[in-house]
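Progress note, sequence design subtask.
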C-alpha cells in the first residue's frame, strides 16, 4: 500500500557532524547551486509535508547496473556514505540493482514505496519517465532522479532532478592528460603533431558531448596541438564494445584514451597496449597501475544528504539541482604519480581555484570554433515549456553556460579539433 507520512511524526533530531569540511556541511549550502529553471513551478505546487523523525526515515535507491559498473558503483558508494553521515542504520535503506530503463523501473519504485520508503533515488537518464509515473502514483513519496530533464516542466511537487557540473572535473582531467602529452613530446615518444587522444563514448547525448568537449578543451589549454577522435558504443555498459572501441582508437594513432562509458573495457585495453588512460567515476589504478592517470567523477553524497535531510525536516527539495566544485560534488581521484607528468598536481590546483572563483570558464567561446567560426549565440532547448523548444540563449558573459539553465547538460556543439568516427547512436 502507498506510504503515507503521518502528521504525528516528530521533528528530526539535529544531526551533529563534527568533521571539518564534511560533505554534510557542504550539502547544507547547496541551495545556492540550485538552477533557476523550474523553481517557481515547484514552489507554487509544493505542499508542506510533515517532517519525519530520523528513526522513521527509509530510503530507496534504484541502479541501472550493479557494482561491476563504475557508474553505478559511484552512486552506491555515495548512498552508503550519506546514510552513514546522517546516522541512519542499514535497515533504513534499500538497494535495487540491475533495473533497466523500462517498466521495471516503475515496478522497482512502486515496490520501494510499498516497502515504506519516504524518498527514492534513481540513477539513469532512461529511468525518468517511469519515476514520473511512480511519483504520480505515490504523491506522498519524494522521487529524485539523476541526469533527468523533466522535473521543472512536470510541475510535480514530489519529482526532482539533479546533476553536477562534471564538465569542470572533465576539464581538469583533460589538463592532466594534456600535461602527459607534453611529457611524451618532450621525451621524444611522440611529436607535437602526433598528440592525438581517443575517447570512448556511450551515446551522442548532450551529456557525452559536453563531457568529451570539456575534456578536450582542458587538454588543449596546456597542449595546443592536441586533437581527438571519438567513437561510440551505443550502450552505457558493454565491456566488449568499450574494449574494441579503445583498441580501434589506439590503432588509429591515439596515444591517450579517455571514456564516458561504464565498464573496465577501455582501461584494460589501455593497460594491455601501454597507453595512458583517463577513466571516469573512479580510480582504475588497481587494475591498470601502469596506465591509469586520473579520473573525474560526481560525488552524489552532498545531494543525497540534502534531499534526505529535506524529507526529515519537512522541507522542499529543489526541483532541479546542480552540484559544483564548491559543493563537493565534482571531484578528481588521486593522481597516479607513476604515470602523471611532473607538476600536474600543482597545475590542477591552479585550475581548480580558477574554476571556483570564475576567472576560468570551461566553455569560453574564445577557446573554440565550430567550422572555423566563433560561436557567439546558441539557443538551447532548456526552457520551461514542455516541448523543450530551443529558445533559451545559453551563451552569456563570453562563455557557454552549461548546467546553469538546467542541471542536465545541453552542450551539443561539435567543435573543431574533435573528429567523430561514428554517429550511429
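Output:
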Amino acid at each position: 500500500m502507498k506510504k503515507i507520512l503521518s502528521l504525528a511524526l516528530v521533528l528530526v533530531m539535529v544531526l551533529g557532524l563534527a568533521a571539518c569540511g564534511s560533505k554534510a556541511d557542504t550539502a547544507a549550502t547547496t541551495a545556492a547551486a540550485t538552477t533557476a529553471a523550474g523553481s517557481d513551478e515547484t514552489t507554487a505546487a509544493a505542499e508542506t509535508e510533515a517532517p519525519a523523525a530520523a528513526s522513521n526515515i527509509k530510503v530507496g535507491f534504484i541502479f541501472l547496473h550493479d557494482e561491476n559498473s563504475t557508474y553505478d558503483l559511484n552512486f552506491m558508494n555515495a548512498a552508503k556514505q550519506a546514510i552513514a553521515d546522517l546516522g541512519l542504520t542499514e535497515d533504513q535503506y534499500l538497494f535495487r540493482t540491475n533495473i533497466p530503463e523500462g517498466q521495471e523501473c516503475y515496478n522497482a519504485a512502486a515496490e520501494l514505496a510499498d516497502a515504506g520508503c519516504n524518498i527514492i533515488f534513481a540513477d539513469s537518464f532512461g529511468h525518468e519517465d517511469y519515476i514520473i509515473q511512480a511519483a504520480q502514483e505515490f504523491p506522498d513519496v519524494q522521487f529524485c532522479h539523476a541526469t533527468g530533464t523533466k522535473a521543472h516542466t512536470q510541475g510535480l511537487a514530489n519529482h526532482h532532478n539533479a546533476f553536477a557540473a562534471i564538465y569542470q572535473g572533465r576539464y581538469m582531467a583533460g589538463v592532466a592528460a594534456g600535461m602527459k602529452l607534453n611529457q611524451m613530446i618532450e621525451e621524444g615518444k611522440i611529436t607535437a603533431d602526433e598528440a592525438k587522444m581517443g575517447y570512448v563514448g556511450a551515446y551522442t547525448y548532450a551529456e557525452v558531448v559536453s563531457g568529451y568537449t570539456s575534456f578536450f578543451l582542458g587538454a588543449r589549454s596546456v597542449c595546443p596541438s592536441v586533437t581527438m577522435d571519438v567513437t561510440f558504443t551505443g550502450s552505457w555498459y558493454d565491456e566488449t564494445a568499450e574494449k574494441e572501441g579503445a583498441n580501434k582508437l589506439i590503432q588509429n594513432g591515439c596515444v591517450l584514451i579517455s571514456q564516458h562509458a561504464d565498464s573496465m573495457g577501455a582501461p584494460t585495453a589501455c593497460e594491455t597496449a601501454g597507453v595512458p588512460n583517463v577513466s571516469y567515476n573512479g580510480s582504475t589504478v588497481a587494475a591498470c597501475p601502469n596506465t591509469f592517470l586520473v579520473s573525474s567523477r560526481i560525488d552524489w553524497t552532498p545531494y543525497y544528504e540534502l534531499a534526505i535531510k529535506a524529507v526529515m525536516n519537512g522541507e522542499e527539495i529543489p526541483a532541479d539541482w546542480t552540484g559544483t566544485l564548491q559543493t563537493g560534488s565534482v571531484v578528481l581521484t588521486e593522481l597516479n604519480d607513476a604515470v602523471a607528468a611532473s607538476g600536474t598536481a600543482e597545475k590542477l590546483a591552479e585550475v581548480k581555484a580558477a574554476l571556483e572563483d570564475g576567472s576560468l570558464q570551461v566553455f569560453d567561446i574564445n577557446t573554440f570554433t565550430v567550422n572555423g567560426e566563433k560561436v557567439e549565440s546558441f539557443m538551447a532547448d532548456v526552457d520551461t515549456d514542455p516541448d523543450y523548444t530551443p529558445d533559451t540563449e545559453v551563451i552569456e558573459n563570453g562563455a557557454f553556460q552549461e548546467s546553469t539553465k538546467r542541471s542536465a547538460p545541453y552542450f551539443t556543439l561539435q567543435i573543431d579539433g574533435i573528429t567523430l568516427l561514428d554517429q550511429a547512436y
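Residues 166-186 form the longest helix (21 residues). Work on this subtask will continue into the next period as scheduled.
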